[in-house]
């Protein structure tokens, strides 16, 4: 199993928003998806996932509705709102700039 | 923003639903995690354990989610409050004692604050009241004296400091016409008086300068009350003629309801809606004769002019006037802010009351803190469990503070109810003529004050115990649980210090109450110089229009006195120009005592009065030597003078005064220019608490007739029974005359000691509350210590200690708290002595009797409070102890 690394501050929101871009998901699926796509490098602690979801919901970037999961259980699904999509674009752009800049500094030094 | 608000509102309003959803969501996640672990080959047991570990604290996650919802503060508070409420219900006696003592203390504070707010803090009901000042004259003999009318005219013409100034003087009038004639409180005012105050008539206008000219004075402005009660609120009242003092006055204005008289000094009428009618003051007479002073000044300062600057300018004008008129030589001008003039005298008393009631609250706080600390030790286990479960200390402090705030706010709410009733009782207890008594209510500011005080109280008594409890070491707390846990040494010291502080503060209040009690007793046991019992008094005022000549006035009072003396049940009756202790302070100065010269910079002066022959025996004023007036002291007889003992001592020390003479004539030529002393009577002071009696003399009403007189009737039994006889006697002589102020002398005397009585009752009440609270505090500490030391006591008994030894040990602990407490209290009281010096009479703040009585009382109370726990200690059973250990 690859070594897991801690999520840098502020990236959790970005990851959640990005994961929800294809469509609504419940919390469990979000954490599984992030882990899977990142080749098991990134893992989201449940202790921080749910507070983050509630915070994003409060900000109006995602909204929640109750649905039925694959195994026929009631589950809470989150989906991106219009403002959430815009926020995702902004944050993605900011993140790219940041990584490029950090990489330049690291290589140039 | 809107989303945010909607989200938070839902989280709050549908709290339970949101919480259930959160639970469900987290369980959903947990189950999936378990399932995933099981798929990777773990047993269910193992999978659940791993999932729990991966999840971290379930409760912590929930708390974080709540935090993220942005409603954590309110939700936590609600949760803490519910928990606190359950805690209080679980221990109702404890809660009840705390809440009730706080309710009493906070309620007392709110009630006194209502008085302070109404009297000292709320604005006077005039335009820009801080610009208003009162103007008086001052000299060596008369520190605060009314103005002379012609001086006033010069002040008005020459000053640059005032936007406007006006003058007013008491002059009651008799209103007749429709129905029974009545005496009305009246004031003569100069033009612009209401403009100075910033008040507008409701109907009509105020007097113009024309009205000040002699002959134009038959105009009147009515109060709203008189307009409604006597004239049926007639909207066409302006221009109507009404009969006052038997003369036709034209109504030119009506003042609105709520027009407050600003209070006055000379023939005082208290601040309030106390004036019925205003008439124009007219400047009659010779403007060069400026010896008589009877009008009072009020002015509105120009913006940016201080009262100091105005005073300087007025004194410069006074100095000019003194060069122009010899009468004006010895005066300086006082400019006093209206607010100071109105409430200055009550201020100190009110602040002392606020201080006393504040002390009561401090004691209640110390008590509450003590009780909370006892309880915190009993709850050590609960707190240790919470700390062990990972609750941060701040959470524990917060929880405990919520409990103390719940207690103090509940106490505050109850206290507000108590204050509501208390304020009504207070107002009815207030001394007569107390300024602004009608402005005292439980109002918005009082509500705010109560809430604030309750909050501060809760934090004050809750913080130390909460911090202390949160320092509980979970390990120690859990180990000790079940066994009697002992409070730390620090806590014991803090608790002892709190009780010592309580005892000392209660001692201060008790000493204060003792001083007030002595003052009150001194005043009521004072020999007043007259006999107040079985004495009916009333006042009459003969209108100028009808009683034009002095013989007419003399004849009226002569006939009235004769007729009153024949009434059944009357021992003696007479009339005097005033009654003792009613604020009379008319002075006559500038007379000459035969054969004596006044000291430089001084003049002969004395209070002057008029009296009919029966007045002295009716008042019960004793004759020291000589005789009273008789029927023979009439117009053409030699001018007779009765003086008081103080005047005899002042002007003829160690001499036989009967037959001595004084004169008001600058150059007396004949015998009839002189007045001869025919009698000396006992002294009566101006007020019961005046330092000494002023020199005074009486003229015979038949030789110096005065139209406004007070009637005094001494009866054999109940004086109330002759009130109708008095009215009949007056109306037989003149059916149009109003008989005013019919009162018992007892109540006049009662009024004059009402301020010391009020102060004594309140300070006494607060002191009683304080010592009760301090006793509860001492009892609490001793009882707790005894319960802690029961095993030790048991051991001691087992080792051969006598029960009396144990009793002595506990009582010694109590003495260790009470003795330093009382010593501190006495020292504190001595250092505060100057604060009450003006409020006490005939007793020193360091009165040894009061100090030792208080020390004794406090020590006794402390011993009594600790006796019950001491008895319990002395009954400690060694077997119980040994078994328990």
Summarize the structure in short.
The complex is a heterodimer of chains A (109) and B (885). Chain A is an alpha+beta fold and 109 residues long.
Please explain how this structure is put together.
The complex is a heterodimer of chains A (109) and B (885). With 109 residues, chain A is an alpha+beta fold. Chain A has a single domain (11-108), classed as Winged helix-like DNA-binding domain superfamily/Winged helix DNA-binding domain (Arc Repressor Mutant, subunit A), CATH 1.10.10.10. Chain A has four helices and three strands. In chain A, strands 1-3-2 form a three-stranded antiparallel sheet. In chain A, a hairpin with a 5-residue loop joins β2 (62-68) and β3. The mean pLDDT of chain A is 84. Chain B is an alpha+beta fold and 885 residues long. Helix content of chain B is 53%, strand content 14%. In chain B, strands 1, 2, 3, 4, 5, 6, 7, 8, 9, 10, 11 and 12 form a twelve-stranded mixed sheet that branches.
